[in-house]
Amino acid sequence: MSEAREDTGEVLTGADGSPSNMTVVHPLREGKSVKETARIYGISADTLYYYERQGILTPRRNPYNSYRVYGSEDFFKLNIITELRSLGFSIEKTARYLKHQDFKSTLELTSEELESINRQIDELSEHRAAIHEELTVFLSSLSDAQTSLTTFEHYDERSFELVSNDLVYDKDLPYTFAKYSALSKRERLKALRSIPAYVVDVTQLADDCFPAKKTLLYTGDANPKTPYILPAGLYAGRTFKGSFPRCPEIYQQMARKIAEKGYAMCGDPIEYCLIGDYESADQSEHVTRMEIPVRETAKGKAA
Fold this sequence. Notes:
Blueprint (H helix, E strand, L loop, with lengths): L9 E4 L5 E6 L9 H8 L3 H9 L6 E2 L6 E2 L2 H15 L4 H9 L3 H45 L3 E5 L2 E7 L8 H11 L11 E6 L11 E7 L8 E4 L2 E9 L5 H14 L2 E3 L4 E6 L11 E10 L1 H5 L1
């Protein structure tokens, strides 16, 4: 395809017929080809064809070879299309604006643009807060893991997202989260900004890990879409360096400590992945927390 020549322009003359210093340039006298137009806007020729199929661009055709030729009206529309698309407007909304372009629609469009910017600001603020919270959790987890002590604390009810109510083994967890994200049509799975938690079955092992009876996700949302409420009560807790294969060993150590302190276990343990595979491929850098619901025994009360 031969590209159209750019007109070098014409020299103006004064009233007396002498040449003027000004030159009028007509770069679109012969129009621009698909290739030239696409290069100017940094898009592909297919994008231009797509706009044409959607009825928002109608370049004329060269009568000799039927090649598309983009003129002033096309570039006018492309300037608008490019701006609206950069703001996230759909092709349908862009087409409606071009079809009914008047001052009222321009005011409405400007208002929508302002709303869009405000939404982006809100989203960025939320994202900043989430990243700050994530960093706080990481640093706190590392600090707690250094001591690796079993502590006893009372917690209020805690809300989690229930990802799965089935028995899931460690190797199947990534698929379980991906499937849940697709089925629940979540905007995205916050793999790096949430805490996976598992109510585990301590009666069996698979790959040196306790399987998950319930797979949970703590995202910090006040009202999870699929809620699971961890009951209020007294919990023994321990944060330690390492991943889930260490949990059976930690569980036995905590069971002894619980008995020594005059408590008895009264529910399934919960494992929290505070720093795991998503944050580091080095398992020695992983940090896990185990919590076990407990109650005070007669021995503990007597003491």
